[in-house]
Every structure is written in structure tokens, then in C-alpha cells.
Specification:
Largest sheet: 2 strands, antiparallel
Shape: globular
Strand content: under 5%
Strand order of the largest sheet: 1-2
Distance between the termini: 57 Å
Oligomer: single chain
């Protein structure tokens, strides 16, 4: 069974409280390439400082690791942070722990949690709270906005608070069990696959390029380049742009900022020249 929250040490409870309050900063410094990475790193910092206090190199690697792209639902974010914190504890105590497993597990959880959280809290709870608040407002009740805020925020904050503890206590036990049974390698592989699928889906949905170079005869279009490309491979150019960007970052150490600037300039030129 998972470790009961009452069995957490005083230091662990202190770190969990810090994590809860820091989690509000998840999207306080968003960038296109990192989204909430800096907020995640700041949220998990108390655990990094504690578990890696005697390992400066491990601390630096952990801080660098968590500056990778991160995006999930804010209400379920503390639960994920708790799971990652428990893996950090295992990493600091178990010399055989594979620290490379932390990032795949984190990446594989953020997508499903985002889908569940957005549907539940933004799609259901917010609508219910708003409908009650609007009904009260139409009746002339001055407490309508307060009722709306309470109906929405009280459940969210309870889930944020207890979710963080649940993620940490569950992770403590099950991460350890996964290593004892040898299932951690299976989990890491599965998490990596899910993460890659998510990145592929994001590329398909977020990167767009419609080629407008067409062949015309006597003022009539006889050959549409984009339709031809779609018959070969749907999304071929967006995929090529994504892979090129990855290659430039990975192999040529090109800064993300320079890539963003380059893509913006390319997009402007392509539009002006009528290419896309």
C-alpha cells in the first residue's frame, strides 16, 4: 500500500506546502518553446534543494532537466509535481535509479492530465458554477460573483492541495516497487512512446504551412501543389520544418530564440512572395 500522508516527515510536509504555493506560478513566465517549464522548475525546487543538497552535480542536472517543455492543467499540476518529487527522492536514495526515467514519466503524464483536467474543470465545473452565478445575478443577488468564484475555486484548490500529497505518497511506494520488480524499464519505454506520440500530435495540430505555388494555364489553375503534397504525405512540409528545427537545436546548438526569429522572418517572406 502507498505511504499514508500521516506518515510523512515534518520536512516532507514542509516541502509539499512550498510546492503547493509555488505551483500557482506555473504559467507566470510562459515562452513558446518552454510554456510552463520555468514554473515547474520553481515549483519542484524545494525537493531538488533537499534531495540533492550533497550532490551539486545532480542538482544542476535536475534543474536543467526540468527546463524542458511543460504544459498541463493547473488543477492537476500539483499531483504530477508530487509524482516527480517522489522519483527525485528515490533517485537520491537509490544508487541504481535511472534518472533518465523521470523526464519520460513526466512527459507522458502531462498530456492525459491536461485532457482530463481541462474537460473536468474548464468544461464542466466552470460551466456549472457560471450557470448558478448567472441565475443569481439575474435575480439581482449581489453575491452572484462571489458564489461563482467559491463554487469553482474551492474544489479546484482542494484537489490541488490533496493532489500534491497523493502524487507524492503514491509515487514513493510505487516507484520503489517498480524498481524491485524490474518494471521501471517497461514504464520508461511506454512513457517515452506516449511522449513521442504527444509531440507528433502537437506537430500536426500546431505547425501549418499551405503551399500556394500552383500551375496556371490561360488563367486557370491546372495543378495545385498543396493537394499534390497531401496525396504524397499529409503535413509533409510542417513535419520537415519541425525536424529541421530539432536538428538545428540538437546538432548545431542553435538557440530556440534564433529559431523562432528565423521562422517568423521565413513566414513573412513566404507570405509576401505568395509562397504560402
Amino acid at each position: 500500500m502507498a505511504k499514508d500522508t500521516n506518515q510523512l516527515t515534518k520536512e516532507e510536509n514542509k516541502m509539499l506546502r512550498k510546492m503547493y504555493w509555488r505551483s500557482f506560478t506555473l504559467y507566470s513566465a510562459v515562452t513558446p518553446a518552454k510554456q510552463g517549464a520555468s514554473g515547474f522548475s520553481y515549483t519542484i525546487q524545494p525537493f531538488i534543494d533537499t534531495f540533492y543538497k550533497d550532490d551539486p552535480n545532480g542538482k544542476a542536472k535536475a534543474m536543467k532537466r526540468h527546463m524542458a517543455y511543460f504544459n498541463t492543467n493547473v488543477a492537476l499540476f500539483p499531483f504530477l509535481s508530487g509524482v516527480v518529487a517522489s522519483m527525485k527522492k528515490e533517485n537520491s536514495e537509490n544508487p541504481d535509479f535511472n534518472e533518465e526515467s523521470i523526464q519520460p514519466v513526466k512527459a507522458s503524464l502531462m498530456g492525459p492530465l491536461a485532457g482530463i483536467g481541462d474537460s473536468l474543470f474548464w468544461g464542466v465545473l466552470r460551466v456549472i458554477a457560471a450557470s448558478i452565478g448567472i441565475t443569481l445575478a439575474q435575480a439581482g443577488n449581489v453575491l452572484a460573483p462571489i458564489v461563482f468564484l467559491l463554487l469553482f475555486n474551492v474544489p479546484v484548490q482542494l484537489i490541488r492541495w490533496f493532489g500534491g500529497k497523493l502524487g507524492y505518497t503514491l509515487g514513493n511506494q510505487y516507484v520503489s516497487d517498480l524498481y524491485k520488480t524490474g518494471m521501471i524499464n517497461v514504464l520508461t519505454k511506454a512513457a517515452s512512446i506516449v511522449g513521442l506520440v504527444m509531440v507528433g500530435a502537437m506537430t500536426s495540430n500546431m505547425v501549418h504551412f499551405d503551399l500556394k505555388w500552383n500551375m496556371e494555364v490561360a488563367g486557370e489553375t491546372v495543378f495545385k501543389s498543396q493537394e499534390m503534397l497531401d496525396q504524397i504525405f499529409v503535413g509533409l512540409i510542417p513535419l520537415a520544418i519541425t525536424l529541421l528545427s530539432f536538428w538545428l537545436m540538437k546538432k548545431k546548438n542553435v538557440s530556440v530564440n534564433w529559431l523562432i526569429i528565423g521562422i517568423i522572418v521565413f513566414a513573412i517572406l513566404a507570405s509576401v512572395l505568395g509562397i504560402a
